[in-house]
Design goal:
This protein folds into four domains: about 1-50; about 55-260, 2-enoyl-CoA Hydratase, Chain A, domain 1 (Alpha-Beta Complex), CATH 3.90.226.10; about 270-410, no CATH class; about 415-475, Nucleic acid-binding proteins (OB fold (Dihydrolipoamide Acetyltransferase, E2P)), CATH 2.40.50. Helices cover about 50% and strands about 20% of the residues. It has helices at about 5-50, 70-85, 100-110, 130-135, 170-185, 190-200, 205-210, 225-230, 260-270, 270-290, 295-315, 320-335, 345-360, 375-410, 415; strands at about 55-65, 90-95, 95-100, 115-120, 125-130, 140-145, 150, 155-160, 165-170, 205, 220, 250-255, 370, 420-425, 430-435, 440-445, 455-460, 465-470. Helix 10 (about 270-290) packs antiparallel against helix 11 and helix 10 (about 270-290) packs parallel to helix 12 (about 320-335). The radius of gyration is 34 Å and the shape is elongated.
Length: about 475
C-alpha cells in the first residue's frame, strides 16, 4: 500500500498557499478601493478650487430672439462664470427682442451675480432692441459697437390681422413696463427720464446719442478695445452691495461656446423658423394622407411637426393660432376638390392669416413680447409669402392634380382596363399599386403580396379592381 502522507502534506501546503494568495488579493483590493475613494473625495473637494479663473473675463456672444432657449444659454453661462471665479462676464448680444418672461429671468440671474455684468451691443450694425434694452439697463456696464442701436422697448401683445401692425398695449400695461425699465436704470445710476422713453415713446439711440445721454458707457469696436477701455472704469450700480473699479489690464478673454443642443434649439426657436416648421409640417401630413403609398410627405411632415412643437414651446405660442392654421389647410383642400374657386378659398386664406398672426401673439403665460418694428414687418412679410404660396399651390395645383386623377377612369377607362402594374402596398384586400408611373388604390378578391404583378379588370370610382397575373403569363 503506497504511503499517501507526502501527498496529503503537499495538498495541505497547496491549499494553504491558495488561501494565503486569496487573503493577499483581498487586502490588495481593499487598498485599491480605499485609494479610489480618496481620489474621488479629493476631486470633489479640489475640483471647485482648481476651477478658479480670476484672470479671465468670460464672454458669451449670441444673436437672435430672446426665447427660452437663449434664456437657458445666458443664465447657464452667467452661473458658470460665477462658479469658475471669473473676473467679469460680457454678454455680447444682437437681438430684436423676444419673450418678456425670459428677459426678466435673465435679468434676475444678472442681479444674483457675484461678478460684474457687462452688456455689449455687438458686432457692428447689431441692435439691442426691446428685450435687449431691458437687459442692457440691468447691466453694470453698457457698451456699444459702432453703427449699433438700442431702445424701442414698448411691449406688444399681438398683431392686427387686417394691417399686420403691432397692437398697442393698454396704458396700464405700458406704465408697468415703464416702471420696470425705470427701476433697472435707477439701480445702475442711469437717467430714469431717458430710460422711461425707451418704453413710453419707443425711443431708439445710436451709440453716440446713448453715450451723451448716459445710456451707454463705452463705444468699442472689438472685444480687445472694450477690455482696454474698461480698465480703471467704475461700474454702475453695485455687485454684492460694493462699488467696483475695474482693473482689466492683462486679463484674458474666455469665449464660452454653445452645445449642439443649444445651437439647434436657438436656431429653431426663431419665430419665423418655428412658423415655417409648423406650416411645412401640416402641409406634409395633408399630402401624405392624400397620396398613400409614397410615405415621404408624411414622414417629412411628422419630423417638421415634432420640431415645431419643440420650437413653439420655447418661443411661446397660442393654441388658437395652430387650430386656425389647421382649419385654413382643411378649407384649402376642400376648395381644391370643388369645381370653382369661391367661399372655401376665402375662408382658408382668412383662417390661415388670422392663425399665423395669433400664433405668436403672446407667451404661454400671457406675459407679452418685446419686438422692434423691423421684426414685426419681417414676420408679417413671411406670413404673406407663405399664405400666397400655400393657398395657390393647394387650390390650383391640387385641384389640377385631382382633375387629372378623376379624368383617368372616365376618359381613359378602356385604356386602363387590362393594364398591368406592381403592388407596392399589399392588397389585403385593399392596398396600393403602381401603374404607368402613377400610384392608385387597388382592390383584389385575394390577398396579393408586395412586388407581385397585377392586371386591371375593372374600375370602381378611383379604385382599380385587379387580379394577380399568373406565373405562366409573366414575361
Amino acid at each position: 500500500m503506497p504511503n499517501i502522507a507526502p501527498i496529503r502534506y503537499r495538498a495541505q501546503v497547496n491549499l494553504i498557499n491558495v488561501v494565503d494568495h486569496m487573503i493577499k488579493g483581498v487586502r490588495t483590493l481593499k487598498k485599491l478601493f480605499l485609494c479610489f475613494l480618496i481620489a474621488i473625495l479629493f476631486l470633489c473637494v479640489a475640483g471647485p478650487m482648481t476651477a478658479q479663473d480670476e484672470d479671465a473675463i468670460y464672454v458669451l456672444e449670441l444673436k437672435g430672439e430672446i426665447t427660452k432657449a437663449t434664456e437657458s444659454a445666458i443664465v447657464n453661462s452667467i452661473e458658470k462664470a460665477n462658479e469658475d471665479g471669473a473676473y467679469a462676464f460680457i454678454l455680447a448680444l444682437d437681438t430684436p427682442g423676444g419673450r418678456s418672461d425670459s428677459t426678466f429671468n435673465i435679468v434676475e440671474a444678472m442681479q444674483s451675480s457675484d461678478i460684474p455684468i457687462i452688456f455689449f451691443s455687438y458686432p457692428r450694425g447689431a441692435i439691442a432692441a426691446s428685450a435687449g434694452t431691458y437687459i442692457a439697463m440691468a447691466s453694470n456696464i453698457v457698451a456699444m459697437a459702432p453703427l449699433t442701436t438700442i431702445g424701442a422697448a414698448e411691449p406688444i401683445y399681438g398683431y392686427d390681422p387686417t394691417t399686420g401692425e403691432a397692437i398697442e398695449t393698454p396704458e396700464k400695461v405700458r406704465e408697468y413696463y415703464t416702471a420696470i425699465m425705470r427701476s433697472y436704470a435707477e439701480a445702475n445710476e442711469r437717467d430714469t427720464s431717458v430710460a422711461e422713453r425707451f418704453v413710453s415713446e419707443n425711443l431708439s439711440l445710436t451709440p453716440e446719442e446713448a453715450l451723451t445721454l448716459g445710456m451707454c458707457d463705452v463705444i468699442a469696436s472689438s472685444f480687445d478695445d472694450l477690455v482696454e477701455q474698461l480698465d480703471g472704469m467704475e461700474i454702475k450700480g453695485t455687485v454684492n452691495g460694493e462699488k467696483i473699479t475695474l482693473e482689466t489690464e492683462g486679463l484674458s478673454l474666455r469665449f464660452l461656446g454653445l452645445s449642439l443642443k443649444d445651437k439647434i434649439l436657438i436656431a429653431i426657436s426663431n419665430p419665423s423658423i418655428a412658423y415655417l416648421l409648423t406650416t411645412i409640417g401640416i402641409l406634409g401630413l395633408i399630402f401624405g394622407f392624400m397620396s398613400p403609398g409614397w410615405h415621404v410627405p408624411e414622414v417629412i411632415g411628422a419630423i417638421c411637426i415634432g420640431l415645431a412643437i419643440i420650437a413653439n414651446g420655447y418661443v411661446g405660442f397660442e393654441l388658437g393660432g395652430v387650430i386656425l392654421m389647421g382649419l385654413g389647410f382643411v378649407f384649402f383642400v376642400v376648395e381644391a376638390m370643388t369645381p370653382n374657386i369661391g367661399l372655401y378659398a376665402i375662408a382658408g386664406v382668412a383662417s390661415f392669416v388670422f392663425g399665423s398672426l395669433i400664433l405668436f401673439s403672446g407667451t404661454t403665460g400671457g406675459e407679452g413680447r418685446f419686438f422692434d418694428e423691423g421684426s414685426i414687418k419681417m414676420f408679417w412679410t413671411t406670413i404673406i409669402v407663405m399664405t400666397a404660396m400655400i393657398s395657390g399651390f393647394l387650390i390650383f395645383g391640387l385641384q389640377a392634380a385631382l382633375r387629372l386623377r378623376k379624368s383617368s377612369p372616365t376618359t381613359g377607362k378602356e385604356q386602363m382596363l387590362n393594364e398591368e402594374g406592381v403592388v407596392i402596398e399589399a392588397l389585403e384586400p385593399a392596398g396600393t399599386i403602381k401603374i404607368r408611373g402613377e400610384i392608385w388604390k387597388g382592390y383584389s378578391e385575394e390577398n396579393i403580396a408586395v412586388g407581385e404583378r397585377v392586371k386591371v379588370i375593372s374600375i370602381k370610382g378611383l379604385t382599380l379592381i385587379v387580379e394577380k397575373i399568373a406565373e405562366e403569363v409573366k414575361k
